[in-house]
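Journal club side-thread
Mid-discussion, someone asked how the predicted structure for our own chain would compare to the paper's figures. Pasting it here so we can look after the session.
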Amino acid sequence: MDLATTGGSWCYSSSSTNCDAYGRLYDFATAQLVCPANWGLPTDAEWITMEIFLGMSDADANSYGNRGSGIATILKSNSGYWLTNPGTETGTNTSGFTALPAGYMVNGGVSWSLNEQAHFWTSSEWDASNGIERTLFYGATVVGRGSIQKFADLSVRCILRNP
């Protein structure tokens, strides 16, 4: 895929340094296309399966908002990218997921929350204008599940489909 012609892939604050450190951010349509052959963007249901596997209760995993206390900690990178405050939770990455706080972009390139939040697209739609996402926050142990407008630019995590 030629990202130069799709217009749906960005570096946080248009900085190649941020792309090198955190990866690219994608709008919903482009996120559906960026995974390599035999890989795919996980559905909302696949995220729920992972969250339950990591210890989130069925009730929490199937609800919206911030849920699953403790799960975000094991998803977050422990490499020092996340902001920390005395007494707040940092990442342990014991799951191997290595979530980096790449922030997100909206409204024509306005960048938000670098080092504070990680936002990941699912391949699932909330409705015609919004997709379903997962969010991790600095200083918090919960995983957010909700909707965001499809023109927002978020991180992606591809999963193996056909080994």
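Post-session note: The longest strand covers residues 117-125.
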